[in-house]
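User: Reviewer 2 asked us to show a designed sequence for the structure in our supplementary figure. I'm pasting the structure tokens here. Could you produce the per-position amino acids so we can include them in the response letter?
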């Protein structure tokens, strides 16, 4: 018998620990780069996080995914143009997520209700 290769992207995934989406007014309080660090100190967010490999690689990956230039301003414009619902669907479909398990205890006053 010949060996068969399995294509893992054909298998839907379950995200077993997802945080809910922020309300629009909560998103407005944070810069995009703040999502790439767990530090809340403004100096780290404003002067260091944007130089990390994680941030720079994520810009390229998001730009490739959203079909735009790998610049924060382009990604944000594309995100705003899609709108929250379409952006969410695009990301979930792109990740081939079948379902998610939400941790709704993270910043509960700032997240969208489900």
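Assistant: Here is a per-position design you can include in the supplement:
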């Amino acid at each position: 018998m010949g060996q068969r290769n399995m294509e893992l992207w054909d298998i839907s995934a379950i995200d077993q620990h997802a945080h809910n989406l922020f309300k629009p007014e909560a998103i407005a309080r944070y810069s995009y780069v703040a999502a790439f660090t767990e530090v809340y100190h403004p100096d780290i967010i404003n002067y260091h996080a944007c130089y990390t490999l994680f941030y720079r690689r994520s810009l390229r990956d998001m730009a490739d995914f959203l079909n735009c230039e790998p610049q924060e301003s382009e990604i944000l414009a594309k995100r705003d143009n899609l709108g929250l619902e379409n952006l969410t669907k695009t990301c979930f479909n792109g990740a081939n997520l079948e379902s998610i398990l939400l941790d709704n205890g993270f910043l509960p006053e700032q997240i969208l209700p489900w």
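For the response letter, you might also mention the following. The chain has one domain: 19-103. The radius of gyration is 17 Å.
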